[in-house]
Design goal:
2 domains; 15% strand; 294 residues; alpha+beta; seven-stranded mixed sheet
Length: 294
Amino acid sequence: MPLLTQTNSQYYNNSNAGNYGDYQYVKFTDIVNQFIMAYVGGDKIISKTKRADVAFHAQRALQEFSYDTFKNTKSQEIEIPPSLKMIVPQDFVNYVKITTMGPNGTELPLYPTMRTSNPIAILQDGDYDYTFDGSGKLLTASESDTWTAFKTASSASNPSNAEFEDELHNASVGTRYGLDPQHANKNGSFYIDNIKGFIHFSSNLSAKTVTLKYITDGVGTEDDMIVHKFAEEAMYKYIAHAILATKSNTPEYLVQRFKKEKRAATRTAKLRLSNIKIEELTQVMRGKSKQIKH
């Protein structure tokens, strides 16, 4: 039975542009159904298992592969408000990179700052004692003095991480012997408050366009639960090993066999999804022959 059910006209004239290119993916429900059909049965490797068990291990496989195998990233673009804060996306797990828009739509990288944060600010009375509410709960402020001072700094006094580095050297040494390259960036800086779910930006990024690229676990919504065909076999091996490893009376040699097959299939999927093109690699390697004059 062919997998393509649309004609060329139906595909190219589709009003839902989000479905373009979906042939490269397999739906999560198809992964579960095809695994049960191929691996579960009286004369199969797994004689009997529940569909719920297959679905659970398939979700775990999808989550694990989303982190370091699929390399699929989502993105959001916003204009930084005066509060200098961006709410992390609902399905956010970790960020890949954050950039600001430069001339002609180019992306200029932003780097995390390690010299400030938004700690929990405990409220104190005139004698510097902690304050509590009627139920004995410790009272805290909505924003810390550290974050308030950081976000109210003007662009002139807080332009970049490079200025922080300069200030640190002047204060501690008295002479500046050189800039640490990790702080040599004038585009701006950020840090992520994972507890409250905000990304905080330096003041020179106010009203600028910022793009967040991040990864998710692949099970946030039904539309996310898809598997690239290059990783389909790795999904089956992961599910099979997980089920065999958790079933009682399973021969150990069988568990170890599928453990090795899972590793091999995952390694193959990573190589395929790395998407290395010889022409692109050749173009990059041309710069290796460039002489650097001192």
